[in-house]
Amino acid sequence: MAKRIPENAGVNTRLAHGGNDPLDYFGFVNPPVVHASTVLFPDAATLASRKQKYTYGTRGTPTTDALGKAIDEMEGSAGTIMVPSGLMAVVVPLLAFLSAGDHLLMVDSVYYPTRHFTDTMLKRLGVEVEYYDPRIGAGIAGLMRPNTKVVFTESPASNTFEVQDIPAIVTAAHEGGAVVMLDNTWATALYFRAIDFGIDIVIHAATKYPAGHSDVLLGTVSANAACWERLFETFNTLGCSAGPDDVYQVLRGLRTMGVRLERHQQSTLEITRWLEKQEGVAQVLYPALESHPDHAIWKRDFSGASGLFSVALEGDGQETAHAFLDALGIFGLGHSWGGYESLAALVSLKDRTIAKGPYGGPLVRLQIGLEDVEDLKDDLLKGLEAARRRA
Ligand SMILES: *Cc1c(COP(=O)(O)O)cnc(C)c1O
Questions:
Q1: Fewest Cβ atoms closer than 10 Å to its Cβ: which of 8, 85, 151, 363?
Q2: Residue-wise pLDDT tens digits, 146-162
Q3: Residue 154 Cα, ligand 1 centroid: separation in angstroms?
Q4: Within-domain flag for 5
């Protein structure tokens, strides 16, 4: 029996069944993990014309097709490439759409390694780089130049969670002839359907929620119809294809991403609302909170919030933040996020030029995992107590 999933099926139904048809591979529920470089051709004429579905391992396999199709169904995109890390998913589209002499508008609150790539390699390749305020909105029109080719967005902001007015930015950027890219890792396609908002290129660190278990590195880039060919061409020129086991693990992660995100969201809402009332907390930066300055934009554009936010502790100096972190027992101290387990990390804004606060004290970034909320609260109380003693 072939699967018949209705067009209007709910998101968890589509996540459970998207990407592959079991009947294409003997009825096994999951697609095969195809390890491949060489693909054979049946005769010389086909070898010469390359006219068959698969031609070489770097250009796609049934495994990458399954994940690509599942993501395109979720995003509403024309095509998706898979690359070995989230950072590579930022790098490939920037290289695809920028040349020497072009002007790039980059949001000042961007993920730090994106900034590092921009300031080093893109500048060396002759791209003119200008940072803009994440809250600029329609004001971006005033920064557009005849040679502005790309407007890069990331919303909410890395570590400080400003929400960008994407519809206003897209309108102004498109009027000026620029391509708009979005690093949508925080919201995932489930909570922000970027292509519906006019974004041309959507970037995800699939390392985070899609993989979901802190054991895989992968990036995905999805494009609308107008940008797909150029993106795919650059991907093939660079040869930066991802390994089949990692691609498979991310497809596996997608099956449960909807239910995991619901739990991350529910726990994070409860914990952030509670944290706002705790002694020693100056501010909680989470767009789903009514107190967040960009809450109205978040509510207008997003259909949910994930499990990552920052908290500003009262007091100054990193000693307060260190005392807080050192008192935590369940929260691990480390980078990345989107896995099943709670994490905490220090935030530094020293490389920014515009979106620098102040926030009333040192910032700590928290990822709320799938543990029981009461246990996480108890752990955070220990941190707050230790921080107060040092503040
Ligand atoms: C983690 C992250 C990336 C990079 O992903 P890696 O797989 O760790 O390279 C890119 N963008 C954002 C917003 C991220 O949080």
A1: 8
A2: 999 999 999 999 999 99
A3: 11
A4: no
